[in-house]
Amino acid sequence: MTVSEVRETELPGVGTRFDFQTSDGSRLAVLVHRSGRREILVYDDPRDPDRCRTTLSLNSDETSTLVELLGASRITAHLSSMQLQLEDLTIDWLEVHPGSRWAERTLQDAAVHTRTGVSVVAILRGGDTIPAPGAETRILPGDRLVAVGQPDGVAQLGSELLGE
Amino acid sequence: MSGVVFLELGAVVFGLALLARVADRLEISPIPLYLAAGLVFGAGGVAQLDLSEDFVEISAEIGVVLLLLTLGLEYRADELEHALRAGTRAGLVDVVLNATPGVVAAVVLGFGAKETLLLAGITYISSSGIVSKVLRDLDWLGNRETPSVLSLLVLEDLAMALYLPLLGAVLLGGSVGRAVLAVAIAVAVLLAVLIGALRYAHVLNRLLAARSNEALLLGVVGLTLLVAGATQELRISAAVGAFLVGIALSGPVQARATALIDPLRDLFAALFFLFFGLQIDPGRVVSWLLPALALAVATAATKFLTGTWAARRAGVGRRGQVRAGTALIARGEFSIVIAGIGAAAGVDSDLGSLAAGYVLLLAAAGPILARFAD
Known about the structure:
The complex is a heterodimer.
Chain A: E1 7-11, E2 15-21, E3 27-33, E4 38-43, E5 53-58, H1 60-69, H2 74-85, E6 90-95, H3 107-110, H4 112-116, E7 119-125, E8 128-131, E9 144-149, H5 151-161
Antiparallel strand pairs in A: 1-2, 2-3, 3-4, 4-5, 6-9, 7-8, 7-9
Chain B: H1 4-26, H2 31-41, H3 53-74, H4 77-86, H5 88-108, H6 113-124, H7 128-137, H8 146-171, H9 176-208, H10 213-233, H11 238-248, H12 251-278, H13 282-287, H14 289-313, H15 318-327, H16 333-344, H17 349-373
């Protein structure tokens, strides 16, 4: 995924504004208020490029809904908020390489949890998400495993899945 | 205690409520209306309001403390630090362009040194309350010139932390050495609080963080009054102490305290504006109206220049520059706070009359001019 160059601007007392240029040349920004409210802003007046038009004002639930509709997985938002609460735990997205010894094997074969203490909470496969995969779920090359656990355990699993 | 006290106070607060409603309907700041009400019912006004002075006076002083506390609460320590690093030049331009007209006017009008310093502060400081209301009401928060406007407001905040102790020392009639010492102490305290707030905020915040809103509110107000009282005793001014408490609070405590204290501040600050008006003879305001108008026009122009300059430096286009300029014009609560500190110290009462007219004009004109720029 290529992320457009997002500029971040602090608005003292208000929040933070993130803005970027879309490929058709218009400028889009998201204003994140301290309260968690978000505004989607569009700069589309060629005579006055600094003036924004608020197109949407969203609370946090509505933001999550919009994010889901736009295609990003909602699980991401949940996990990143979890990361804030559980400081000893790491959450990582681990890619499975074809050369890994666990490719084409099940989670049970890999004995992920017993060996590393890491829980695989979801598998991202193509456009799909397999939430809470069972022990018999097969790990395929190209999968991304959403793994939660102690940092060293997650790191160990990560290198195994890379085929190192 | 007789019921008369409640009757009087109830009538006053109810009257203020009606004014707030009118202001909301007209989409203007209520501050000029509170002031005008004070003028009408005060010394030499149309009707005398025989309020129990002590209570209203204390309320007015609490109003000042809460105004400064919420000013400090508005910005986080890292925002202040960032503004100091990034916007110092714009901040200096702001001081030079907007304090100078006050100094010149004071000299031309023949005021003394104390009044000159007061008038410099009165013309310098924009009303962060009115400006942020303008930004919200006109939907300007996301505009690209807005960071420049907000950063100037932050720096004015910080400038107040230096100005108020200096003012305190000068009003006491101390020597130059004393004034320098007072400012040096204030700078040291301010730096200590800023660094402390950045590094050890969690200690203070843990101390105050209570699950119940009631405990948090009482804790913050109690601490603020304690610090305000201590700084007053140290002759640094209660306002500075309250301001520093506001800066030192951060994180969730800051967010919750802001929400809890805002309504309290609205009540006491309204009484403060009224009280300030009560002490002033409206006849004197009228006779000072011409100088006030001239000063208002001049400092509206200098503030406009400050805003456009800061926005231009940030690479904003012409229309955005005009918006940034007009957004900053309004003077309000802090100009009155400064004039009120002067009045309490017994300076030339004509300064209060001039300041009242000046703030009436600019608090009303600022938002209107901004609307025209939109």
